[in-house]
Amino acid sequence: MKLLSLTAVELGKKIKAGEVTAEEAVLASMDAIEAKEGQVHSFVTIDREGALKQAREVQNKIQEGILTSPLAGVPVAIKDNLCTKGMLTTCSSKILYNFIPTYTAEAVRNLERAGAVILGKTNMDEFAMGSTTETSAYGVTRNPWNTDHVPGGSSGGSCAAVAAEEVCYALGSDTGGSIRQPSSFCGVTGLKPTYGTVSRYGLIAYGSSLDQIGPIAKDVSDCAAILEAIASHDKKDSTSILRKDLDFTSGLTEDVKGMKIGIPRDYLGEGLDAEVKEAVLASAKKLEEQGASVEEFDLSLVEYAIPAYYVIAAAEASSNLERFDGVKYGYRTKEYEGLHNMYKKSRSEGFGTEVKRRIMLGSFVLSSGYYDAYYLKALRTKALIKQAFDRAFAKFDVILGPAAPSTAPKLGESLKDPLKMYLGDIYTVSVNLAGLPAISLPCGLDKKGLPIGLQIIGDCFQEKKIIRAAYAYEQAGTYQRSPLAEQ
Amino acid sequence: MSKEYETVIGLEVHVELATKTKIFCSCSTAFGSAPNTHTCPVCTGMPGSLPVLNKKVVEHALAVGLATGCKINQYSKFDRKNYFYPDNPQNYQISQLYLPICHDGGIEIETESGKKTIGIHEIHMEEDAGKLVHDDWEEVSLVDYNRSGVPLIEIVSEPDMRSAEEVIAYLEKLRMIIQYLEASDCKMQEGSMRADVNISVREQGAEAFGTRTEMKNIGSFKAIARAIEAETVRQIDLIESGERVVQETRRWNDQQGYSYAMRSKEDAQDYRYFPEPDLLPLVISDAYLQQLKDRQPELQDEKFARYLSEFGLPEYDAKILTSTKKLADLFEDTVKLCGKPKKVSNWLMGETMRLLKEHEMDPEDLGFSPGNFAKVIDLAETGTINGTVAKEVFEQVFTSDIDPEQYVEEHGLKTVNDEGALRDVIAKVIQEHPKSVEDYRGGKEKAIGFLVGQTMKAMKGKADPGIVNKILKEML
Prior knowledge:
The complex is a heterodimer. In chain A, helix 2 runs antiparallel to helix 3 (about 50-65), helix 9 (about 300-320) crosses helix 11 (about 355-365) and helix 9 crosses helix 12. Chain A contains 16 helices and eleven strands. Chain A is globular, with a radius of gyration of 21 Å. Chain A has a domain at about 1-255 and about 465-485: Alpha-Beta Complex (Amidase signature (AS) enzymes), CATH 3.90.1300.10. By secondary structure, chain A is of the alpha/beta class. The longest helix of chain B is centred in the middle third of the chain and has 20 residues, at about 220-240. In chain B, the strands form four sheets. A nine-stranded mixed beta sheet of chain B has the order 2-6-7-10-1-11-12-13-14. A three-stranded antiparallel beta sheet of chain B has the order 5-4-15, with no helix packed on it. Chain B has a two-stranded antiparallel ribbon with strand order 3-16. The N and C termini of chain B lie far apart (about 75 Å). In chain B, a hairpin with a 2-residue loop joins strand 6 and strand 7 (about 115-125). Chain B folds into three domains: about 5-285, no CATH class; about 300-400, no CATH class; about 420-475, Arc Repressor Mutant, subunit A, CATH 1.10.10.410. Chain B contains 15 helices and 16 strands. In chain B, helix 5 (about 300-310) packs across helix 6 and helix 7 (about 325-340) crosses helix 8 (about 340-360). The interface of A and B includes residues 83 and 91 of A.
């Protein structure tokens, strides 16, 4: 199982050097999955035969010199809200229990072009709605650091799979923190790119104006390399941006001398766990020691981010999820009388509680008489939050703070109080509202032995700056393997 | 005594744009293909699919907006209209509510009571829905998504029309403009032009509008006129009998000449419109708009004036020929080939119109080529065939677009110009009809007509009646 303690780029090098074959890498992952899935349950679908076949094809192309990407031959796990042609794609929902897409998401295609081998699909909160991976219709995923705790969400399966060393890297999606928060809880590194950097074509939408696909891996170097592979200008996605600076790995330098780092006081106030605060400030200190300047400042409007986020995301979700109606694909109720009853029963039975809650919330804020008071106001708040960040980035190169107010809670604790769970997104949702890139990377453990995540936020298109800061910080040797990884 | 009422009518006209591909994906818009053969993840609402706007749709919408005097929103947006129905695969329609691409225009119509401008409130772009097919035998409904995502513009008029006559004049003018722009073929029977009619009545002179009803998707101009007349009567009857008009959507049954309520305003759905997050705002640059303005084709008014000056046609001809782009194009293309604009016009105004009426066709349905049409005119003008034969040949061109030269050759229809042969036939006719000969010589001029007819009959129509007449007179 030693192969899986490597980073994706390290494994890619070994495959290229002929020390390991792509097929051996898949088999190593399959062995790890077999050994650990009972404890962690990161996957919804595992495609052993497909992966082995793909690995053999990729191996031939590597040997022929056709595939030269650093990720060629390295297995990957894909969050189950990304369409994969011919492979079950459920969004961890009953309503898509049998859905097999006819096409592959552009980000995944980009990985395939680079020679990645798809192992399977990872568990998530149903339709990416949740912060714990407990709202999945296919069972909860557990935290590899302590299986009594949640892995975070919604990309909990992807983060747990990486932390448990079932796979070297995975793709996730981030609408309000769904890459960064579970990365923080699982002690891995996850990057949410600038909105428009990675094509959303084939990502089953939750909040279309906020969703971005991003990498989840052991370290910053992997994240940079993976992002380089998945980012592209895609004409099939009207919100995709033509960027010429997709050479993210060029940001992998230790040099943070003169880098101006801001820490929002608003991110250190009430509700933040003392141990998390301590770890974050200690991380800032380390960067300061390496030559960066660190300054606290007032970002403002932070308290409005959560209500604005939940209004906008729920509004878009209520519309995005209308297509799941039992007519064309997915779950249809067994018995019904007429069309309306079929819709109602299929959707009532097919969606889980949290999804229904957000559909109702979203339908409400868009309904006539409430649109201006809620939806339009939320859009205005979104614009103001972006302005607050603009002011901050006029002064700072990057913003540093916690990814989440606490470490991973125990299973079963969060869903009892959804409002409290929503408040846990306080440090992540603003980034989506403003369309910014941000990374979460491990910065120590709390007394319970659970990982703490450090979040570094950049201005739009400044991924290289956050990669540079994160990479410099990481050189201090912060990565620790989870107990389940060491098994 | 009974009061005087006024009918107030506004129209929402949906026009399917003549693009090769759909509004948000690259599937074909071709009509009449096998079900679900022109579909992809986008137009079937597959999870994860995303819309990408077809630029051609914007061009057509802008062209119609410019031709109808609209202001252009150079910053416009798409919105989602949410409602559940199986013909709508995403259960929302991408349309424009808050910032439609064109607004505040108008077109001038002419009716017997004179000229009048009908205001256009807005023109917006949207996607069409699929088609449901109900299987009565199996008790199932099937859905065909070929039409899903076909581009539409919706042209919303102001409530400026006061009679069925004005409504028809407005629709005809609108159709003509759109056909001239080649933005759509506007065929009501194929559904590429559909009209929803909003109608209310009020006492003559009243300022406030009455309660309106809406009649959706009426199949033809004539049916629209009948529906308006019937709905006016129905609403007046309600008011006169002390009842009130209910705001509702009604369906017109043209066979029965009767409309029935579909749904009332109380059942009206809340569409929860909001800006489409998958599409960026549409920004029309000044340069692009100017480019489109420069590319606008000649419309009817300009063409009419040109027909008078360039071809010297009478106003009457010019008006009819420019009434549809099809006729105007046919006219100009034919004149290009054979000259003689007045002759071409005569054939279009006379025989063509007669045959259209006989076959119950519209000018849009004309299928013959300017080449064959020009040949008929040449054959007639050079005297190769006589007038009667020319009509016969033209009818063949009209129905089957045959090659007139070949047809005349094969059927031996050329006028016989061999005077010797003609004189022989005439001599024989004179000999066989002494009574008529006597009548003519006795002063009955008309009798010669009978003899010409007999000669033509004997010649199987292939003689020039003028020449026959001339020779007859000589020989008598």
